[in-house]
Design a protein that fits this description.
232 residues; alpha/beta; Metallo-beta-lactamase, Chain A; seven-stranded mixed β-sheet; globular
């Protein structure tokens, strides 16, 4: 299977459902297992890193009207433009995030702190060329992490339920250490909905000492993922 399927989706797989939100994979067969998310707020539904699929709009509609589309990583422009035009809303991303403005031909809203009142946005720029934001939705206890954390094999070692991307094990996202989310939605793989807070703590606490094992097991796949993600 390809790492990232660039063609049209045959239908999305819903991987997480909760009161006021869901996650889906538009191409569940791909190795990279890119995930997209919808979270309902008092102002409407926010779509995070969305990828289009034939059955997605009806699931989004069941949550309410779309209030905004947000890109959380400089490599996750994905189908943000299509969703924004369809719902007549701008594409939101941080003022400092590169690439997105060149990849999205739609109205944009570049924010400094947060484009939506119910979300706490945490900045993450650990290395040159790595730019992402973590969105935490307090009312539902939902943490969304696009790239630093994941649940696919190339992120995890041993019995980890939630793993750090290989390079992030050297510089883990310590700004997440004080959070105790009810669920964690990631950009690659199904979300963590069972004891998410403990999974997060274990991932952060074991980051550096698990690096050698992660390099041995996932080094080649991680390099392959980075090069593939650089494509539009």
């Amino acid at each position: 299977m390809p790492l990232f399927e660039r063609g049209e989706s045959d239908g999305a797989k819903i991987t997480v459902e909760f009161e006021g939100g869901l996650s889906w994979m538009a191409h569940p067969e791909e190795d990279g297992q890119r995930s997209s998310h919808a979270i309902r707020t008092a102002d409407g539904v926010w779509l995070l890193d969305p990828i289009d699929a034939p059955n997605v709009e009806e699931r989004i509609a069941s949550l309410g009207d779309v209030a905004g589309v947000a890109v959380l990583s400089c490599y996750h422009a994905r189908d943000a433009e299509a969703f924004a035009r369809r719902h007549d809303v701008p594409v939101s991303y941080p003022t400092w995030m590169s690439r997105i403005g060149d990849l999205v031909d739609a109205p944009t809203d570049q924010y400094t702190f947060s484009p939506a009142g119910e979300f706490r946005v945490l900045t993450c720029r650990p290395f040159p060329g790595w730019e992402e934001v973590f969105w935490y939705h307090g009312p539902s206890g939902t943490l969304v992490v696009p790239d630093s954390l994941g649940t696919i094999d190339s992120f995890c070692v041993g019995d980890e339920r939630l793993g750090l991307e290989l390079l992030r094990r050297l510089q883990p996202p310590t700004q997440l250490a004080g959070l105790d989310p009810e669920r964690i939605l990631v950009g690659h793989g199904p979300g963590v909905t069972d004891h998410a807070g403990s999974a997060l703590r274990e991932a952060l606490d074991g980051a550096r000492w698990t690096f050698p094992a992660a390099l041995r097991e996932n080094g080649v796949q991680s390099a392959r993922s980075i090069f593939a993600a650089m494509r539009p």
